[in-house]
Amino acid sequence: MENQSYRRFGFLLGIVWLIFCLFPIWWVVVTAFKPPIAVSQGATYIPFVDFTPTLQAFRDAIAGLRGDFAGPIVSSLLISVTATGLAVFLGAMAAYALVRFEFRIRLLAGLVFGIVSIGGFALLNQTFSVRVPYALAIVLVTALPLSVWLNSLRLPGPVLKNDDVTFWFVSQRMFPPIVSAFALFLLYAEMNKVGVRLLDSFPGMVLAYTAFGLPFAVWLMRDFFTNVPIEVEEAAMVDDIGRLRIFFQIVLPMSKPGLVATSMIILAFIWNEFLFALLLTSSKWQTLPILLAGQNSSRGDEWWAISVAALISILPMIVVALFLGRMMRSGFLAGSIK
Amino acid sequence: MGDATKQERVKHVFIWPAFLLVLLITLFPLIYALVVSFQSIRIVPPLPPRYVGVDNYLEILGSARFWGGMQVTSVIVFASVALQYAFGFAMALTLHHNIAGASLYRVAFLLPMFLAPVCVALIARMLFHPVLGPVNELFSAFGLEHIPFLTTPSLAIATLIVIETWQWTPFVVLLMLAGLQGLPSEVFEAARVDNIPAWRRFRDLTFPMLLPLSVAVIFIRLIEGFKIIDTVFVLTGGGPGTSTETLTLFAYNEGFKKFNIGMTSALSFVFLFVVIIFGTVYLAASQRLMRRYQ
């Protein structure tokens, strides 16, 4: 009896939420087919009943009548696919190392690294007026070997283990992105002054987004690798097959579902990312979200054009959601929440 | 022995590329930004950088706009995360008990989370249009015509909360559902056999068992929520005036409209500090809460 009423309540909640969820998406889809009159005379909902659908907005967009769509789409595709590939690849490697090997990092060595790099940079840049990129490079090549060497000594103080290293990666994502985005903008601007063009460029954006996606990749892939049975690898090691070959020929193929799911999630993040693109691009490599944000002021009430633009950005994500929805049913996410 | 150390050494090949990239792209620029935050640098008009100590930081802490941004961001984040958690948990419970058509729902429920916030804000601008939008039509049915949703400060913030809830409840559903699926079913069957009513099963079993996950989910959403800029950027641009300006948007405006570089750097570090403090307090508080339940 009681169960029945809960069930009914749940069903009702589901329906209401479904409408709430899908209405905005329905709206943007139908609006893309609306003629101007169907917009300016109040809200209309159902094609053929409320208004006569037209493909004019799509034709305008393809003809490039209302600004360049193709450019940002191509940039977005190139940047997000390349950066996703790199992030998943590097992240998977790091995650594998964190699952299968033991790391011991002395906190003191890490602190020395931080102090030497910040102090050294301030000194070089302020006192000796070394240009920013050079100062940073000098600091890096001094501080990094120094702390690696210090790490091999028996220093006192706490020792950080694998979980702490994982946390270090993931904690990059807890930063407000404006902190790293703005810092990166400053650095890229300085690099431009010494002749390395990173602002509004393909390498600059790919680097930024790879670093942006890496923490997710490390976090998600770590769980997938934990579930790969170690026996297979041990058997391969007995046959004296190198660790790198084991990784590329055995472990990676075995965790293919994980790799695909991780790639999808990271692709979605990068495809939709706004702040980095806003700060780091100006014209040539502007991505789709930046173009969309501009629609608002440049289009005003041309809702059909805005909707077409929005749809272009939404469509690939619908594919991603469908795919992940199917994976979710098979319970693949149960592992990553531990 | 030699083999073992060789095996060990290969771990560096695996981890260093990722480590170096994060170091170079995410952390090293921070060093420069930190130095800049103690300087007065303006691009327009171009003045030579001047060391000003903590002036930038003091100016931020004394600025009404900063505290306004704090307030706007906090209201949006706390209100929307509370709603996301409540609706998300309820939806996860519903889906977990396999109501009719659950598999169709799953995809539909996931969708909002994968749309670009910029897109969502564009759609919302149409929906909440005071004359031509469907929300206006809905409210008109109750006799409330032409409500200026986006140009009244409090309504604009309410609209932002609705949008955030719409977009991010799926994230809560996704993780809470995964958590529910991982719970041991024997306990619940035993409770059902003992005729323990459903709401008590929830209060005494489901909720406490999922508390650690809830803490983590809320934490992620709060931290992510604090970053909000894109939705606001498109929906209201921070207006009217600066009444819906969030912290990130404020930092962006200082840097790219006023070209006040030192100030923006300082602001981003203040923001970082706020997030760290908040995160620490939250985690400490939730530890205590969890201990009480165990």
Walk me through the structure.
The complex is a heterodimer of chains A (338) and B (294). By secondary structure, chain A is an all-alpha fold. Chain A has helices at 2-31, 36-40, 56-63, 70-100, 107-127, 132-152, 162-171, 177-193, 202-226, 230-238, 243-254, 256-272, 275-280, 288-299, 303-329, and strands at residues 105-106, 159-160. Chain A contains 15 helices and two strands. In chain A, strands 1-2 form a two-stranded antiparallel sheet. The radius of gyration of chain B is 24 Å and the shape is globular. By secondary structure, chain B is mainly α. In chain B, 74% of the residues lie in helices and 1% in strands. The two termini of chain B are 46 Å apart. Chains A and B meet through helix 1, helix 4, helix 5, helix 6 and helix 8 of A and helix 1, helix 3, helix 4, helix 5 and helix 6 of B.
Q: Topology of this structure?
A:
The complex is a heterodimer of chains A (338) and B (294).
Chain A: H1 2-31, H2 36-40, H3 56-63, H4 70-100, E1 105-106, H5 107-127, H6 132-152, E2 159-160, H7 162-171, H8 177-193, H9 202-226, H10 230-238, H11 243-254, H12 256-272, H13 275-280, H14 288-299, H15 303-329
Antiparallel strand pairs in A: 1-2
Helix pairs in contact in A: 1-15, 3-15, 4-9, 4-12, 5-6, 7-9, 9-12, 10-11, 12-15, 14-15
Chain B: H1 2-36, E1 39-40, E2 50-51, H2 55-61, H3 64-96, H4 102-110, H5 117-127, H6 134-141, H7 153-181, H8 185-193, H9 198-225, H10 230-235, H11 247-256, H12 261-293
Antiparallel strand pairs in B: 1-2
Helix pairs in contact in B: 3-7, 3-9, 7-9, 9-12, 11-12
Number of strands of chain B: 2
Helix content of chain A: over 70%
Radius of gyration of chain A: 25 Å
* Spatial order of strands in the largest sheet of chain A: 1-2
What is the H-and-E element order of chain A? HHHHEHHEHHHHHHHHH
Low-confidence stretches of chain A: none
Q: Could you say which structural class the secondary elements and strand pairing of chain A correspond to?
A: mainly alpha
Low-confidence stretches of chain B: none
Largest interface summary:
A-B, 109 and 101 residues
String of helices and strands of chain B: HEEHHHHHHHHHHH
What about the largest sheet of chain A?
A: 2 strands, antiparallel
Count the E strands of chain A: 2
For the record, give the distance between the C-alpha atoms at the N and C termini of chain A, rounded to a whole number. 36 Å
Helix content of chain B: over 70%
Query: Strand arrangement, largest sheet of chain B?
Result: 1-2
The N- to C-terminal Cα distance of chain B equals 46 Å
Report the principal-axis shape of chain A.
Answer: globular
